[in-house]
Amino acid sequence: MVLCFPLHVPESDLLTTFSTLSFKYGDSQREEGGRLFTDVNEVKLATLVSTLPHIKVKRTWITEDNRPERNQNWLNTVLKKNNSRKLKIRC
Q1: pLDDT tens digit string along 15-45?
Q2: C-beta of residue 69 within 8 angstroms of C-beta of residue 54
Q3: Cα–Cα distance, 88 to 42 (Å, whole number)
Q4: What CA–CA distance (Å, rounded) separates 9 from 76?
Q5: Is residue 1 part of a domain?
């Protein structure tokens, strides 16, 4: 199952909304047009996931945005539940 939606919440609320997220590649928080954005890189993802019981980062990779007017990168990851099957999330 793939779940990705734009996420406009403070970093402190990320873990409670982890199943519905999408991240641009980076390591900062920023506000644009009155909306809050939290960008995530491999280090920040590992830190967030380390607080989730039974979940680990199995693989990450970076992709470029396919939209021609965008020059952005996205962090993609495969998370694995320790006692279950893989959970894929594109971030």
Answers
A1: 655 544 568 899 998 898 998 888 999 999 9
A2: no
A3: 15
A4: 19
A5: no
